[in-house]
Amino acid sequence: MSEEKIKEMIDNGGKDLFTDLLNNTYEAACIIDKDLNILFWNKSLEDLSGTEAESIVNQKCRKNLLIQGPEEKLITCAEMCPVNQSCKDKVIRNYKVYVLHKEGFRIPAFMKVLPIKNNSNSVQGSVITFHEHTPKVRMPHFPKELQKMNMLDTLTETGNRRYIEMNLGYRLDEMKRYGFPVGLLFCILDDIDSINDVFGTVVKDKVIKMIGKTISKNIRFFEFVGRWEEESFLVVLSNLDIHKLDLIANKLRLLAEKSSIQVGDKLIHTTISLGGVLAESTSTIESLVDEARNLAQSSQKAGKNKVTLFSEEY
What we know:
Layout: H1 3-13, H2 16-23, E1 28-33, E2 38-41, H3 43-49, E3 66-68, E4 74-76, H4 82-89, E5 93-100, E6 106-117, E7 123-132, H5 143-148, E8 152-153, E9 158-159, H6 161-178, E10 182-189, H7 192-199, H8 201-216, E11 224-229, E12 232-238, H9 242-257, E13 261-263, E14 266-268, E15 272-278, H10 285-301, E16 307-309, E17 312-313
Parallel strand pairs: 15-16
Antiparallel strand pairs: 1-2, 1-7, 3-4, 3-5, 5-6, 6-7, 8-9, 10-12, 10-15, 11-12, 13-14, 16-17
Helix pairs in contact: 7-8
C-alpha cells in the first residue's frame, strides 16, 4: 500500500483512529511531546505499570526509568533522556529498561523510542513502546499449587523456606551428577526495622513484597527466589561462574535500591545487602546457606547496600 493511501486512510479515520490503534495493540505505549509532557498512555501500559492513564496524562515525565548500559550498568533516564536524544537527532532507539510499577518493584522491558516528525521534518515528540521481558516461568508450580503444598510465601508470592530447601537440594544433586554450577545469593533487607518503627507493619510488608517482586522479575526463568526469613530472601542460580554471580548480585542490588513505594508525600525505599557463593561438590544446603548468610552479614557490617562474594567486597 502506498504512503498516499495510508495517509488517506488515517485522515478518513478521524482524530481517534491513532489512539484507538494504540489502545488496542499488545504493546504498552505512550506519547510524550518534546517538552516531556505525557500526552497519551495506553491500556497495555496501564497493565504493565499499574498506573492509570487519568493519573498521569498531562503531567511531566517522571524520569524514573532505569536504562541498562554496558555490563548491566544501570543509568537513570534523568541522566540520559532517550526522548531528548531522539528529538535532537531523529534516530529511533532501542533499550533494555526497568519500569517502576505502582507497587514499587522494577519490571524488565524492551523499550523503543520512535520520533514523531511533522511535515517540515522537525520532531514534535515520541511514541514510546514497551515489551515486558519478565521470565514467564519462574517456578515449577503455580502459586495456588504451592499454597496447597504449604510451599508459598503468601505476602511476596515467592517460595517459602520449605520450597527453597527442596529445590536447592535438587540443584545440588544435579550439580554432583552432571557438573552444572549452582550459585546462591543471600539477600538481607537493610533498615527494615526502622521502616516498621516509623511507618508500621503495613508499609513494612509492602516494602518486603516490593523487594521480593523486584528480585523474582529480574532473574532467569530457570532460577528462583524464595523468602528464607522475615527480612531475607534466597536466590538460587544456575550455569554461571563467579563473574556472572557478581553481575547478577549487583544488578539486583541496584534494582532494589531504585525501587520505591509512595506513602503520602514520601517515597519509601530500602536497600539489600548480599552474600554470594558458588556450590562445591561437598556443599550441603546448610553449609551453603550459612556461608552465604555470613557473607551478607559482612556486607551489612561494611556499610549496607553491598555485595560480598567469598569475603571479597565488590
